[in-house]
Write a structure and sequence with these properties.
Homodimer. By secondary structure, this protein is α/β, with parallel strands linked by helices. 52% of the residues lie in helices and 9% in strands. It is globular, with a radius of gyration of 22 Å.
């Protein structure tokens, strides 16, 4: 049986005597192992993408839950969805054991509270269209387990991401995602291999879902909001790539479209006014691929 994240590996028993180059090699080696674990979990992640996209297409939310490192990794994934995909902030929620202060300061003991998990979910009104993703390296964190049990009872789709085989989190999940990373370079320090694997798994899951929902077109972030000079330039270049228009024309269309890459692309491609392009895009339910057909 593979060692757990809390196990001490004999190989790393004398790392305080290693030189700096060997320390870097050992730590980086663990990162490769983390990605390998995510790849092994590919079938579970693919199923999670398909089922989560169905719920979210009905108006549901992504609700992430975790404690400590796992909660902070979850929060990072949630926070990136609005700027990357223009996903509504209110539909990407992170519930952290110990509350918002625990994102920055360790809240010792908060992960052991089952009641706090249920209360947090009730506060956001978890329901049948929601997707609740709980992360726990050990697979036995009471806050994460109780959260999925409560969310499942409310009819939500539940996804458990954990790193130790046999973790109870998998037993209470509709879709268990085991990332079997084994012993850490620093025994028990799950911000390392386990954390890397969790981050990569969430990258795969949330990006895959957004692609399924039509938030990506031809590999481009067409929902991105150009909120600064760099992003305005990037948005214009996307429109150039999608339409073949000159850069200045793309910038002009982007301005008329109030920064909407999709709207500007439809305006140029279909030679439509803004109002006409808005109606065209609305008829396609905001899906650029469908609108351009």
């Amino acid at each position: 049986m593979m060692s757990s994240t809390e196990s001490a590996s004999p190989r790393f028993a004398s790392i305080e005597d290693w030189n700096s180059a060997d320390l870097v090699d050992g730590i980086v080696e663990g990162q490769f192992a983390a990605i390998s674990a995510v790849r092994t979990a590919g079938p579970a992640l693919a199923r999670a993408i398909d089922l989560a996209a169905e719920r979210l297409a009905r108006g549901g939310r992504l609700i992430y839950m975790g404690a400590g490192t796992s909660g902070r990794i979850a929060a990072q994934d949630a926070a990136e969805l609005p700027p990357t995909f223009n996903w509504p902030y209110e539909r990407a929620i992170t519930l952290m054991a110990g509350g918002n202060d625990a994102f920055f300061l360790a809240a010792e003991g908060a992960e052991d509270s089952e009641a706090l998990a249920a209360e947090a979910l009730d506060e956001v009104g978890v329901g049948a269209d929601d997707v609740v993703i709980a992360l726990a390296a050990s697979g036995r964190t009471p806050y994460a387990i109780a959260g999925l049990v409560h969310a499942r009872a409310a009819g939500a789709l539940t996804i458990g991401i954990f790193n130790n085989r046999g973790g109870k989190l998998g037993e209470v999940s509709d879709i268990p995602v085991l990332l079997e990373t084994g012993a850490e370079f620093l025994a028990g320090s799950t911000r390392m291999k386990a954390g890397t694997a969790q981050k990569a798994a969430l990258n795969s899951l949330s990006t895959g879902v957004m692609i399924k929902l039509g938030y990506v077109y031809r590999g481009l972030m067409v929902e991105m909001l150009p909120t600064n000079i760099k992003l305005v330039d990037r948005a214009a270049k996307m429109i150039v790539e999608l339409t073949g228009a000159q850069y200045d024309s793309a910038r002009d269309a982007l301005q008329i479209a109030d920064g909407s890459i999709k709207l500007a692309t439809v305006m140029i491609t279909k030679t439509l006014s803004r109002a006409e392009a808005e109606a065209h895009l609305a008829a396609a339910r905001g899906n650029l691929r469908q609108a351009l057909r």
